[in-house]
Design goal:
The complex is a heterodimer of chains A (114) and B (114).
Chain A (H helix, E strand, L loop, with lengths): L2 E4 L3 E5 L4 E3 L1 E4 L6 E6 L5 E7 L5 E3 L5 E5 L4 E6 L8 E8 L7 E3 L3 E6 L1
Parallel strand pairs in A: 2-12
Antiparallel strand pairs in A: 1-4, 3-9, 5-6, 5-10, 7-8, 8-9, 10-11, 10-12
Chain B lengths: L4 E3 L2 E4 L5 E6 L6 E7 L5 E8 L2 E4 L8 E4 L6 E5 L8 E8 L8 E2 L3 E5 L1
Parallel strand pairs in B: 2-11
Antiparallel strand pairs in B: 1-3, 3-8, 4-5, 4-9, 5-6, 7-8, 9-10, 9-11
Classes of the chains: A mainly beta (114), B mainly beta (114).
Chain lengths: 114, 114
């Protein structure tokens, strides 16, 4: 079975400093992994996805994530936080069932201080 | 190309009433997924449908909940005899028939049961 664990429920950074949101996954085969962002009372927007191509994945808004099989991790990073990055971030693994339902982590709330 | 559309965006029901949530997938997408986000929880898969077929309903509650995706028209998630515990945000996602990797989410319907 597939699962993801987001190691921090809340992360707070200052504007202009780096962002690190941690995610570990569990999968019995080579997984497809995603990061989605949800702004308050909004839907989910895809930030980036890993599907067994390059292990360093670049997404929108300056975010990137690195797939590390040896560590079963898929951490999300950004060099410099912006106030507009404040949101809830979800690490997601695609299930192995037919059609591939998405399995979400519990989410990490990112706060950005001025 | 319009994104995934959901309506209504907000829905208030009294206990015992029925709730109908609608989802129109992106143009060209024939796969629809429903997810539920309970307060203070992550998103949980409910059901995966293709046109006129339920592919995976492993996340649907056994009673009161049903979903359909007819040949014509939007996908419908129906909740009969709602209870307070059904209060949540319900998100629909769609994906194209060729690649099921990326699911694009709608803005959600926020259901409040009084």
């Amino acid at each position: 079975a597939q699962s993801v664990t987001q190691l921090d429920s809340h992360v707070s950074v200052s504007e202009g400093t780096p962002v690190l949101l941690r995610c570990n996954y569990s999968s019995s085969y080579s997984p497809s992994l995603f990061w989605y962002v949800q702004h308050p009372n909004k839907g989910l927007q895809l930030l980036l996805k890993y599907t067994s191509a390059a292990t360093l994945v670049k997404g929108i808004n300056g975010f990137e994530a690195e797939f590390k099989k040896s560590e079963t991790s898929f951490h999300l990073t950004k060099p410099s936080a912006h106030m507009s990055d404040a949101a809830e971030y979800f690490c997601v693994v695609r299930g192995s069932n037919q059609g591939g339902k998405l399995i979400f982590g519990q989410g990490t709330e990112l706060s950005v201080k001025p | 190309n319009a994104g995934v559309m959901q309506n209504p965006r907000h829905l208030v029901r009294r206990r015992g009433q029925e709730a109908r949530l609608r989802c129109s997938p992106m143009k060209g997408h024939s796969h629809v997924y429903w997810y539920r986000q309970l307060p203070e929880e992550g998103l949980k898969f409910m059901v995966y449908l293709q046109k006129e077929n339920i592919i995976d309903e492993s996340g649907m509650p056994k009673e009161r909940f049903s979903a359909e995706f007819p040949k014509e028209g939007p996908s419908i998630l129906r909740i009969q005899q709602v209870v307070r515990g059904d209060s949540a945000a319900y998100f629909c996602a769609s994906s194209p028939p060729v690649s099921q990797e990326t699911q694009y989410f709608g803005p959600g319907t926020r259901l409040l049961v009084l």
